[in-house]
Design goal:
With 218 residues, the protein is of the alpha+beta class. Helix content is 29%, strand content 32%. It has ten helices and nine strands. The chain has a nine-stranded antiparallel beta sheet with strand order 2-9-3-4-1-5-6-7-8, sandwiched between helices. A hairpin with a 3-residue loop joins strand 7 and strand 8. The relative contact order is 0.22.
Amino acid sequence: MGWKMSAVFVMEEGAGLMVPGPIQEPQLEEIESIRLLKGYNKIRYALLDEVIYPDKSEIAVGVYGNNAILCHWALPVALMGDRSMRKIVGRVKGAEDIKREFFELFSSAQVLSLVLHSAVNLWGYCLYDKGRLRRSAAGASDIGLVVNEGVLLPEERVILENATIDDYNSKGQGVELVFEMSRRVFGERIDEMRSLEHPMVIYQAKKRHFFERLCGNR
């Protein structure tokens, strides 16, 4: 089965793993106030399984205790840095303002961004700790390694003990790195989980959002 994912996971200190639970409305309202969701209407509820790679006109948000998930087709790549953004989704006007506002809201959290489209061997991830970038890596077999910044994380060392990240990218195996990184969120590889039953709120753009107007289709 091919995998597609474009999600940001927010974990406040001491909050534990990302487990399903009821949506926390007060925290949800805080997220609804940021610029990323301007021009969007709340339309329905779904499970993470369905929206982990959302339609280009939608954003999915889930909040459970002090943890949160945001699924969006451009934000996760934008967090990986300018080079990744240009290579994967193109230039995005206003992206820096959205990133700044995002980290102001989650200033004390650990933030993990995961991107995957196994059909085209596209993969990427980045980890922030209290707004500071600790690690960012992304690539695709046809465009090479796009970014490789920071010190290897424990999850990566398991995979890269006897190989380089370039080797994995060139062989189209970057997906393995993303799956290992997902352990940090769920406690196990996402591809080994039976289901993702985290409730999510779906927001749909009232009209084409500026990410789409500037970048076009994915």
